[in-house]
User: Fold this.
Amino acid sequence: MAIIEQAGYTLIGNHGSGFVALTMVQDRIDLAPVGQSSNVKTNVVKVTGTEMEAVKWGKDNKMPLELIRLVYSNHNKFSLIKTCRDLVLGAGLLFYQRKTDEKKKWAEPVEYAEGYDWLDEVRAYDVMAKVALSYYLSGQGYMGMQRKSDGAQIIGLTHYDFPTVRLERMKAGAASPAALLLHATWDRDVKGDTVTRVPLYDFAKEPDRQPRDFALVVKDGTPGNAYYDLPDWFGSQNHTLIANLISAFHLSGLKNGWNIRYLVEMPATYFARFEDKAEEMETKFKKELHDFLSGVENVNKALLTKFSIGEDGKPIQGFKITPVTSPGGDDMYLDLAKYADAAQASAHRLHPGLAFADTSGKLFGSGSELRIAYQLHLAMSTPRVRHLLTEPFNRIVARHNGWPKGVRLGFEDTNITTIADNPNGAEKVQNTAL
Assistant:
C-alpha cells in the first residue's frame, strides 16, 4: 500500500519546535527503509548550494509526520506512549554508585550537590523527558550538548524535535553518520541557508577537541535500517487504523443514523402537483426530513403524518415508512474495537490499565493486578531504555565535567506497596535494575 499523498499537514517553526495540523489516516505508513546496502543515492535530499545530503526518512521523506498523524488520530495511542515515557523516567534523577558483596549487588544513592546543581541548571530531566517521548513515538530521540568555549565542560543541553531532523548521508567507508541536519520543513525545497548541521559526538576525540555544539542519537537499533529506527509499536498500526475507523463509523451513525434505519417510500407522482417547482419542492422536503430526524438531538423522535380519504372511503396512497433493522446496530464492531485496543497496548509492552485505557469493559483491573503490572514493567521494560537515556551523561558528561569516579546517573522510582506494608501505599526507592 502507498502512503497518503495529500498534503494534509503543515510543519511550522524553528529547529526545536513545530506544529502539525493533523488529518485522518486512511492507509498504512509506507516504510521504505534505507539500509547501508540500499541505493542511498536515490533516497537523499540534496541541500541546495551545499554538498550536504540528507537521507530521506520513509517514502517521500514524510514518515515522521505520518507517525505523528497516526498517533494523534487514535484515542489511546498517545496515552500509551506518554505512559511508557512517564514510567521510564520514574520519580526523578539520582546519582548512585554500584555496590556489591558476596551475596548481592545494589545501587546506593550518593550525595553529589554539584552534580544535582548542574542537572537543574541545564534542565536535564525536562530534556530527557522530550527525548524519551520522541524515542517511544518514533523509535529515536535526538539530544544536543553545548561545550564551554574555553574548556571541555558541558554547559547546556537541548532536544531536537524529530520531524525537523534528518541524518547526513554517510561517506564511503564510514560506519555511522557524522551529523544531524536540521530543517523546519523537509517535504519542501531545502536551501543551504535554512539548514543547520550539528556534528555527532566523536568518542575518538579528546573532550576539549569536540565541536562547541554536538548531538547524540538515542536509539536501540533496527536491523536493516542504518539511519532511522522503527518504534516498537510500528507493527500494530493496522490495529490503530481499525480502531480509528470504528470510531468514525459510530460517529457517522450518531450524526446520520436515521438514514439507515428507515425505508421511506413515496409515490412517484407525489410532487407532480407542484408542476415546474416539483424538483425544488422535492429537494426542500428531503432536507427538512433530514434535519427533522438526523442528529443526536433527534434520537427516537416521532414522525407525525397526515393522510387523505378518497371518495371510496379508503386512504389515498402517500408516504410509506418502514423500519429497517441494521445487523449489529450501534453495537457493531465494539468487540473488534476492544480487540484492537488490547493489541495496541500489547505492542507497547504495557498493561492498558497503567495508561488508564479500558480494553475489556472491566475498567483497569484489581489493585493487586495493577501493582504487579507496574512492578513487572519497571523490571522488564525500562532498564534498556534507561541505559540509552543515561548513556550520554555517564559516558560524555561524566568525562567532560569530571564527575567523581564511580558516580553514575540513574533514576528514582516510586514503589507501590500494600497498606499493610506501608501506611502511605508508596515509597521512593532507587532503581534496583541499574
Notes: The longest strand covers residues 92-100. The chain is about 30% helix and 20% strand.
